[in-house]
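Example record

The entry below shows one chain as it appears in the dataset: sequence first, then structure tokens.
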Amino acid sequence: MTVTNPPSRQTSPAKPPVELVNCTIDGIAVSVPKGTLIIRAAEHIGIEIPRFCDHPLLSPVAACRACLIEIEGQPKPQPGCAVAVGEGMVVKTQLTSEVADLAQRGVMEFLLINHPLDCPVCDKGGECPLQNQSMTHGNGESRYTGVKRTFPKPIPVSTQILLDRERCVSCARCTRFADEIAGDPFIELFERGAKQQINIAEDQPFDSYFSGNTVQICPVGALTSSDYRFRARPFDLISTPTACEHCASGCAMRTDSRRNTVMRRLAWDDPEVNEEWNCDKGRFAFGYLDHDRLTNPMIRENGELRVASWPEAIDLVARKLAESYGNAAVIPGGRMTLEDAYAYGKFARVALATDDIDFRSRPSSEEERELIASLVAGSGLGVTYSDLETAPVVLLVGLEPEEESPGIFLRLRKAHLAGSTSVAAISSWSGPGLAKLGALTLAAAPGGEGQVLNALRDGSASLSEAGKKVSELLHEPGAIVLVGERLATSIGAISAAVQLAGESGAALAWVPRRAGERGAADAGALAGLLPGGRPIADEAARVEVAAAWEIETDELPTEVGLSLEGIIDHLVHTEEVFAVDVEGSAQAEGTEVVTDDGEIEVAAPFALVIGGVEVGDVARPADFREALANADFVLSLETRLSDVSLLADVVLPVAVDTEKIGSYVDWEGRVREFPKTMRDATQLSDSRVLAMIAAEMDRSIGYGDTGSIRREIAALGNTEGNRTEVPTYTPRVASPPSGTSALLATWRYLLDLGVLQKHEKNLAGTRRPSVARLSAATASSIGAVEGDLVSVSAGAGAITLPLAVTDMPDGVVWVPTNSPGSVVGETLGVTAGATVSISRGASDA
């Protein structure tokens, strides 16, 4: 049985015409939409009114009074940032009004009375609105002769953010951002009058995932980053527009470097994607760019890796891979650029004659591959951030946006506060991020998401009142279902989501966690898929791609290859066959494979090509290690010595993002290009290294440069999705066990033990604590109370964490996937939905 694919987009209802109002500003007639603030109307005609507290994405507060202007008929100057334009209003700014000019200069003089003269050492010096506006709208000399107010400095409001209180002008930008945008009101204005200052509650640090934005929008350098403080002057930096590599949100950023070293990252203004915000992971986690870097190829000799030259390494790799022609697999991982993913896919099919390729170095399923193949790959721009703001409801399934896609979280919070969108989630518990979205949480045990989705589709009488409301909203025009990558571990849930979207008319979008996964799907770095979402089993698709690649059609594989799980299974169930050469030494001839019917076959040596994958990334780390050991040849393309490359036969160094040109494709399907930041960098991209190997094998895949790859991708184009239908998988009945057993629920925190955060000590200080979560009834069944140690164990080991009693289904335990004290894959050897043992106290396992 199959189901019809849902549409990727819906047409939103037509917007009502905009009502305009007319006014005059400095003698110039202006027509603007009703409700426009005077300060914005002035910007439309190129008039800049000074301001500190004003920000277009924050609510007006008129705190600093720097924007005072004259309005005819008003008895005194008014704040232009808080008064909306009225019909027939006559406004005079500092350009035409002595009253406004005198008022602005008076406010500036007042703000500077206690402001320290530390511009030469202040991080904001050189890009400071207070500096600029004191020159343009202030007096040339100060009349104040008293002693300026001072405070101890800096005050750490968190491990990442420092406060210099005497610089603060009480503009409330930081407090409004924390309250309105991030939903983390840890930072606030204390005291009143001359004593007013920014601070935090005692023993409650500013542990927000978005705290770095307050540094960027602070107009006076009162808030600074502990990482960047005193490291560089703004005019010493080279700024490059870049795209974030940490998740699929696709945030635009600005990377500032000095002397070939990244000094800082800032959020870049992109109204269609991240507006002017980003998360702290994207802003601060860049130490990996120049720490522990590989600079030379390495070859395993006598069991140890030694440094080798490029010609020696490429020659060895080419010979070994040629021996494994047609018997190799490629595991590129989910962190690569679109161009590198395309090169891996082309290299697998052309140089290795294999379709065994899978970018999903994480728990995955064939059901998810079917979703990617039929609805995602090559579908182009689908559901957008703007759509999230106008949807009557956004249903999150297998997705915790604040932890897994912060850009989506911020846009949903904006829509929630505006009252335009209801957020619903099917989850084992409602985390802090969902609470900030006012989400209607439909509880589901791990593996039971498909049952809830089917109930929403059928309008089941068993639904709660919240569930019935969500079911109704999903049938309204513009409704959206967002499916996270975690849903792959719940059998039948993905196809249930597709059915729900298809029958309700809601748009459906897939949201992977890593930045490179959507692009890898489009580029064909997945078994069964050629570039642009073309099925490899389709003759016309193979003909088209073969022509673009200048090879014969019959050189392309015709059958869907193995997924990562299949690759691991294949290698775990193989046994090396040895022959004795004339010298009497053992020499591997190939691999002995036990087939399903018990037959023994000898195949050519099996090779693995791996790019940027950690052992702990995959669902079964122990089996993956065994697979690496059993493979006849392992090539690792890496930026540093990882746990995979330490097991490889050859390790080839490759460039990080700042050392190459590339692009990511965000969850929307939007291409996010970025230039080379380190202009003197000489490291080669993955695509260039693969091209060198292919050329040595006499199986050319081109030069591997970004320009030619982009031209190939553009020439092939997308197939606009909807090529096949998604098979229906039957959801399993999730019946949580009782007693000392429970179903495991788990997902990653945004800030965890991820390899790209390895060197960020200050950022690590704002991680969320690792806890084990149980319902009150389940906790009681094992005799545990809040704060007790609870042990979660499976065959491979145990995780012991403090208990947090949580409103969640009975018989379910939640722990973070990859946090201090809780590394699920490595420790337990299982994934979400597995049955584990729970007990009070530490385990002996």
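Notes for this example: The chain has a mean pLDDT of 91. The chain has five domains: 20-112, 149-287, 298-362+551-665+684-696, 371-512, 741-840.
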